[in-house]
Amino acid sequence: MASISIRCPSCSATEGVVRNGKSTTGHQRYLCSHCRKTWQLQFTYTASQ
């Protein structure tokens, strides 16, 4: 099984990044346990980026 290292866009941490449910459009959300910020990698609308 392959694993993907996801970096927090706020604090740049790679350790402690966990999945945090899905958005209303079905995209995966992530949570950084260091800075407690949430984000998603994909957006439905480009204005959200």
From TrEMBL:
Residues 1-36 form the InsA N-terminal zinc ribbon domain. InterPro entries: InsA_N_dom_Znf (IPR003220), IS1_transposase_InsA (IPR051252). It comes from Escherichia coli. It comes from the Bacteria. One of its GO terms (biological process) is DNA transposition. This is IS1 family transposase.
